[in-house]
Every structure is written in structure tokens, then in C-alpha cells.
Amino acid sequence: MKKIPVAKLRAGSAVRMPSVQERKAKSKTLRVKAPTEVPYRSAAERRADGKMLRDAVPRAQHSGWNPPKERRDPVELVLAQNEGRLLNLVPIRHGRMMQSPFAFYRGTAAVMAADLAHTPSSGLRVQACGDAHLSNFGGFATPERNLVFDINDLDETLPAPWEWDIKRLAASVVLAGRHIQLKQSESAAAARAAVRAYREHMAEYAFMKVLEIWYDRIDLQRLLDHVDDKKARARMQQRIEQARGRNAVEHDFPKLAEHLGSTPCIKDNPPLIYHSAEKMHHADSEELKAAWMLYRESLPEHTRVLFDRFHLCDMALKVVGVGSVGTVCLIALYMAADNDPLFLQIKEANASVLEPYAGKSLHSNHGQRVVVGQRLMQTASDIFLGWSQGPRGRHFYIRQLRDMKLSAIVESFDDEILRTYAEACGWALARAHARSGDAAMISGYMGSGGMFDEAIVDFAVDYADQAERDHKAFVKAVREGRVKAVVES
């Protein structure tokens, strides 16, 4: 509507207001008007935009690590993470973290998150893993029963700067190399291979169609085809065949369950698997039934039909990993019939360690946060992946306990295998980031040369030194009695 001068309005000039029909006609005309701007930019244009980000944050700024003066005591951060954990399991967690700087690093995602908040960032964000160390990658089965290589632990996932994940991965590779007593040059070379694989595959994703990125997956056979080292390829092939031959009936059920009467139950293997009197007291409670119903509702409708074929027989507490020890983790045995088991893992989900620095999750239930993050980052997630809320308000996510899972045994690596595995991790991380982030802009920022690679490797070596210093301080705290630890035999 034409603007009427204030002077005219004050003079009492007659002003005809548009009728309702006229206003509707004008509104309709505005709605169908052709857009004046193209709603997207080409990959080349976005890559150029990414390159321009170097003006504000040069790639060389990512090089090296100098702890800030106000850096918080890493031991205090570790102890702060124990809040809400099962107190009887916390010393086991500390004992596992004592074993080596590499083991300590695996349990200190919160320490590194606080440190990464002080490092440069290009400003581009992705759905980040939050704990992208070497041991959180591996093989598992898709719903179509194909074996793929991907990130397999996303407890800390949250939208965050993409650089944080690649820095955590690179530093873990250096620490893994030191753990198996490689030369410093060999450890650095493996970290460089991981970063280079990330950069080169991100460059490929930059010019792929969006749906091509979404459908892309790293089949283990496809991964084997990229392995030049014959020894590494033979070892990988052997482990793949072992995983394919493993199933719940023939492998997991005899190992984890036994018959004590007519109904099968989970075997006790304390302190790693055991029945808690408190937990079992609530096994038939209305709260627990409500929690299982909430989980069921989180599943797609067709999966609910499948889930309803199974009946709960038993539940037990299970100790897993390093960083997760002490959080509530259970396994549930479901049966559809004799020799027809389903093992589900129920894992507690707390706020991501990235949250104080990257912002709060959009999801009030942290189990849902993990599930959504997995579906965003993984090629294919477990069909039983869902979330719930249990007694005392704890948040959980649920999935199958094992599904042809293949994990890295770092102690069996040599320099060739470490480098090959690091490359696979870099590739998987690039694919995961490209699903939620702008691959063209990230690729444009990194460039086609090795400058970004070298900067991250310099950071990784320095941060590995920091992790070793933190580990030494942690061991000292245990010896002084400040931290209680139990070393498993």
C-alpha cells in the first residue's frame, strides 16, 4: 500500500483503504512472484567461498598446540565426568585409563573438547562425532547384511566445527603409533595419511550430487581394494571372514547366556557383566515397562512389528569401553523362540562433552541426540536403534549388542597397518561430515596441497605430547590417593 504522508493524515484527508478482496489479490500475486535469486550456488562457487575463509583463519594457524594459561587441571576434568556414574565402576574406569597415554586419551574426550575450544576454526560446522579417535571406527553389518567401515561410537555427537574431529583423530593416530613403539616419523606419517585421506575424499564429495553422498558407503571389500600392503590386506580379509561367520545364535548366545530353568538368562561374569539387585528389583516395575514402551515408540513402525516378535527374558549390567565405564550400560536378552535370541545394548546418554563449547543439543533427550547423530553420520544404522528414558530420569539409546562388529586391535598393528587403518578412518570421517556439512566449502578451505595436512600433523604431535603429560599427572594422582583406581587382572 502507498505510504500516506503524515501531514495529509493529520489534515483529515480522505484515504480509501483497500478492500479485503483487493488485499487478498495482492497477497496472492506476491506469493506466486518468481524468485529474484537463485536458491543455490554451484560446487565451484561454494569451494571458492571456502577458500576465502583462509583470509580470516589461515590454515597455518591450525599448526601446533600451546596450552592456554587458564587451562583446567585434566585430573579435575576426569573426576568431574564421574558425576552420576555408578560409584563401584568408577575405579575400573580409572584403572583402564592408567594403562597407557593412548588408553587415557580414549577416556578424556571432555579434556580435549575443552582444549579444542581454544583452537582456530574456519566457522564451518557439521554433525561432529565429538570423540573421533582411532578406536571409535570399525566394521559392522548394515540391515542388508553387508559389512561396512564407519564411525561406530557417537555418544558425544553434536553439531560443531569440523576441525575438532580431524584433530582428535590425528592426535589419536600419533598416540597409537607411540603405543606400539613406532618411530616418531612413522607415527607422524600415519597421522598425515589420515588427514590426507580426509582432504582428498572431501574433495571428491565436493563435486558429488547430494544423494550420491548420502548413498555412498565404504564396503569392507571396497576398502580392501584400496589397500596396497599385502600383509595388511590378508589380515583384514581374515577378520572379515571371521565376522561374517559370527551370529547371535552360534557365537553370542552360548557365550553370554545360560539356562537356569526353563527361561534362558544372561551369565554373570563380574565385574564386567553382573546382575544388580537394585536393577533387577525394578525389572517388572511400571517405570521399566514405560521405558520399554517409549523405546518401542522411537522405532519405525515396521521395526516395531519385528520387535514385538521378541519377549524380554533377562537384563544385566555390562562394563564397556574406557570413557563409558561407570555410566549405566545394560544388556537385555530377548527371545522369539528357542535358539532365536536378540541381544540389545542399553547405554546411558549424557550431555555431549562438546555442549559447553558448541552449544546445547536441540533434543531434550540425549538418547535421541545420539540416535539422530548416528543416522546423520553413519551410512546405515542398526535397525533396532532407538532411545528411551529410564527410572530416575536417565536418558538411554538402544541398539543390538553386536552385529558382525569389527574393532581395531591396535596392539597387533605395525607401521604399514596403522597407516592403512588411519587412511580408512580419514575417509570414513570425510564421508560422515559430507552428509551434514558443505563438502565444497570444507574442501575449498583445505585446498589441494599438503599445507593443511602438515598443520594438523604438527598439532597432533604436540597434542600427543600434551596427552602424555596429562596421563603422567593422572597416574601421579592415583599413586597419591587423590584418584581411586582398580587395575583388572
Write a compact overview of the structure shown.
This protein is of the alpha+beta class and 489 residues long.
Throw out a few tags for this protein.
single chain, alpha+beta, three-stranded antiparallel sheet, disordered N terminus
What does this molecule look like?
Helix content is 48%, strand content 13%. The chain is an alpha+beta fold and 489 residues long. It has 2 domains: 43-245 and 407-479, no CATH class; 248-400, no CATH class. The strands form 4 sheets. The protein has a 6-stranded antiparallel β-sheet. A hairpin with a 4-residue loop joins strand 5 and strand 6 (264-266). It starts with 5 loop residues before the first helix and ends in a 10-residue tail after the last helix.
- Biggest pleated sheet: 6 strands, antiparallel
- Average per-residue pLDDT, rounded, comes to 87
Determine the strand fraction and express it as a percent band. Answer: 5-15%
Quaternary: single chain
Helix content: 40-55%
Count of discrete structural domains:
2
Shape descriptor: globular
The count of strands amounts to 13
Q: For the terminal residues, how far apart are their CA atoms?
A: 82 Å
Uncertain regions: pLDDT < 50 for 5+ in a row?
1-18, 26-32
Question: Structural class, judged by helices and strands?
Answer: alpha+beta
**Number of helix segments?**
21
Radius of gyration: 26 Å
Strand order of the largest sheet: 7-8-9-10-12-11
